[in-house]
Amino acid sequence: MQALFWNERTQQLSDGARVFDPLALTWRDDAPEHDGKAVTASEALLRLAATRKLRRVPIGIIGPRDATQAQYDLAEQMGAALARHGLQLLCGGKNGVMEAACKGHAQEGGMPVGLLPDEEWHAANPYVAIPIATGIGPARNAIIARACLVLVAIGGGVGTLSEMALGLQFNRLVLAMADAPEVNTVERVADVDGVIARIAARLLANA
């Protein structure tokens, strides 16, 4: 990851030679006025979010409907962290890990999107701000995997495993937490801060 600098006066992120465009999610060759303060990728993401100009490409949190308490708590923390960093949550919109992620995201001011397998929006958990009823059942897993920049798996069984595999097929960054299924090339991350750091690095590196 390249060195990053935040200019508080211009509200711009640079790498010393280029300026980051938070809407286009690209680096422009415009020379910055001066470097500014050195920041980590996670810190850069926080500052970009505060400008309210960051394009919100979704981040997916995936996991079981019958979550354990530990999985539920972790998903809630993860959803909250996404909202604090200006990241859009997209999930399956049902119970368990999905509900917990939506709860944390909503409580931090986010507007979680739930892509439901059901035919009616009423099937969404109570924390989904934007329910999208697809009526296509488990096939909606492919849409979640395709639409998200990063997938974060917290626990899970066959359904979660299918989303992880689809994410890899679509060349998405797939991260595993807690007791998510073991999959080759899927990186296991120990904590929420580690996940945010990987998301930030991916978002800025993709630009």
TrEMBL record:
Xref: InterPro entries: CHP00725 (IPR005268), LDcluster4 (IPR041164), LOG_family_nucleotidases (IPR052341)
GO cellular component: cytosol
Highest taxon of source: Bacteria
A Pfam match: LDcluster4
Name of the molecule in the record: TIGR00725 family protein
Species: Tardiphaga robiniae
